[in-house]
Design goal:
There is one protein chain. This protein is mostly helical. The chain has one domain (2-287). The chain is built from 15 helices and no strands. The chain has helices at 2-29, 34-37, 47-52, 56-76, 81-89, 91-102, 109-128, 139-159, 167-187, 194-199, 201-221, 226-248, 258-274, 276-288, 301-310. Helix 12 runs antiparallel to helix 13 (258-274). The longest helix is centred in the first third of the chain and has 28 residues, at 2-29.
């Protein structure tokens, strides 16, 4: 049990760090200006992922994501879905702290309190989580997983054509639902041997959900706040798997600690989502700052520097 809890925490740490790295990579690879990204009719850009694959930072984030996914699989083998997914919610606290350091953003007192709330919620879950329930499901359950991936994909491509500020949280929420399908699929895998994976529909559902959700999440980050998008992802990927685990997979808490588990779950998720204000406040503060003075040619100095950097030949 302790090893699974550590694995879940490692997974959350990896996902949180990778989220900020991917946000930087998305904005570097995007061919849309902030104004264009906020307009309707842009949709999902499949070439975005191809351009991101040329960046060392993005490739490093993928490696970190894979390490987090392996740790998540380990946690799901021994912990109930509600505990693992709530601990995954703590990756938003990691995202906020890491963004504050790497992107030079500032966390106010309320954000640090939210981070502390996430930590406290995770601690309560660690104390109260029982063993996981059943991992074997019928063909009807797996069929619904496949249908869910299709619905997520169709909805995501439709929502991607909406303007901001609706586009970023809506895409994040749909991507989160895709990650929820991924978590449930990972939970019901019969094993990890090549033959077991080849024969299991859940393995294919897991792969499809991961690809679709990642593309939608990357699209959400175009022209949007990393924490706003990630907050929507966290909320949508946490609640549905918890409900599925309890209702259909037999997940339970330790005897007499159901209330503690519920409190920990709510505290972790609510405090994680509350950190979305950090992203919005940072963006507003950045937009309210005075613009740099133009140089002798008439272009703002910072924009001229950015243009000069973008015109350098790639090494």
């Amino acid at each position: 049990m302790l090893g699974s809890l550590v694995a879940a925490l490692v997974s959350a740490l990896c996902y949180g760090i990778a989220a900020v790295m991917q946000a930087i990579a998305v904005r570097a690879a995007s061919r849309r200006t902030a104004e264009v990204a906020g307009e309707a009719g842009q949709g999902v850009d499949p070439g975005l992922l191809v351009r991101m694959l040329r960046q060392g930072l993005f490739l490093a984030s993928i490696a970190i994501d894979l390490a987090g996914f392996v740790a998540q699989l380990i946690a799901l083998r021994n912990l109930p879905l509600f505990a693992v997914q709530a601990i995954m919610a703590s990756n938003l606290a990691v995202t906020a702290v890491f963004a504050a350091w790497l992107m030079k953003m500032r966390l106010a007192l309320r954000e640090w309190l939210a981070v502390a709330g996430v930590v406290a919620g995770v601690a309560l879950l660690g104390l109260s989580a029982g063993a996981q329930g059943a991992s074997r499901v019928g063909s009807v359950f797996q069929l619904w997983l496949i249908i869910s991936v299709v619905i997520v994909g169709v909805a995501g491509f439709a929502v991607a054509r909406l303007p901001n500020p609706v586009r970023t949280p809506a895409l994040g929420a749909i991507a989160g639902l895709g990650y929820a399908v991924l978590a449930v699929s990972a939970r019901v895998l019969p094993g990890f041997s090549p033959m077991q994976l080849i024969k299991s529909p859940a393995a294919y559902t897991l792969a499809a959900a991961g690809i679709v959700s990642f593309l939608l999440y990357a699209t959400a980050l175009e022209g949007g706040s990393v924490t706003t998008a990630t907050a929507a992802v966290v909320l949508a990927e946490t609640m549905p798997p918890a409900v599925v685990g309890v209702l259909f997979l037999g997940d339970t808490t330790r005897h007499g600690l159901a209330v503690v588990a519920g409190l920990g779950f709510a505290l972790a998720v609510v405090c994680a989502v509350a950190l979305a204000r950090f992203g919005e406040a940072s963006e507003s503060h950045r937009h309210s700052e005075p613009q740099p003075e133009p140089d002798e040619v008439g272009q703002p100095v910072s924009r001229r520097a950015a243009l000069a950097h973008s015109e350098r030949p790639e090494g």
